[in-house]
Amino acid sequence: MTAPAAAMERWTGLLFVIGAALFALGVLLSLPPALPPLLSAVTYAVGAVFFTAAATLQVVLARRALPEAERRSLPLRARTADWLSAAIQLVGTVLFNVNTIDAVLTIGARPELVDVEVWVPDIVGSSAFLVSSAIAIVPVVRSRRYFRVADVSQRIAFLNLAGSVLFGVSAVSALELRSRTDVSLVWANIGTFFGALCFLVAAWLFGWSPRSRTARGGEAQS
Predict the structure, then answer these.
(1) What is d(CA 87, CA 55) in angstroms, rounded to the nearest whole number?
(2) 35-77 pLDDT, tens per residue?
């Protein structure tokens, strides 16, 4: 792997770590009644921006790994599934951006939708994350994306899948609120908080764990 690509992987991991940490922080900031809802809303919105920046870099990395001919055609087969997973993930992060920014702009005008727009991810964005994680857990995709840290690649993939499932729990809770049925904000916050922690640990293992730094250093010397 070239030095620019290695550096891009480090940035991808760092941006995902920051975005996940901000989502977890957003849950904590939403709990104390004394804190204004806008504070947690802005935290989520900024976190979504970091997620999107990281997802964009991951799409670039996946495309760079393709042979030149396939970069132009991008056929849907096993060797391009990594790119497909990354692209779907990027769509999900963009939807989170739309969702969280809308919440910041309308938090005073639609107080009954604060829990939907701020505390939990949008159902479509969460679905995109879930599909992306399911593709990335396939061995051939996992081996392409995490080849530098092959010994923890399965752990990374399953952590991302667990995070996507937990975000989905939050999204389902939000859907219940939209349909005017009872919703458990406890479960919504649990899903968002622990889902974010799963993404944070997976991103750290990918780009910033001692093992990944050692692997990257060995590649730079070879």
Answers:
(1) 8
(2) 998 899 899 999 999 999 999 999 988 887 666 655 555 555 5
Round to whole Å and give the CA distance between 90 and 88: 5
CA proximity to 43, closest of 17, 25, 18 = 25
State how far the Cα of 159 lies from the Cα of 200, in Å rounded to an integer: 9
Euclidean distance between CA atoms 89 and 106, whole angstroms: 26
- Give CA–CA dist 39/42, Å, rounded: 5
Q: At what angle do helices 210-221 and 3-30 cross, to 10 degrees?
A: 160
Determine the 3-state secondary structure of 207 from DSSP: helix
Q: Is-contact 109 138, C-beta < 8 A?
A: no
The domain locations on the chain are 3-216
Render pLDDT for 136-186 as a digit per residue (tens, 0 to 9): 998 888 887 887 778 888 999 999 999 999 999 988 776 655 555 556 778
pTM: 0.82
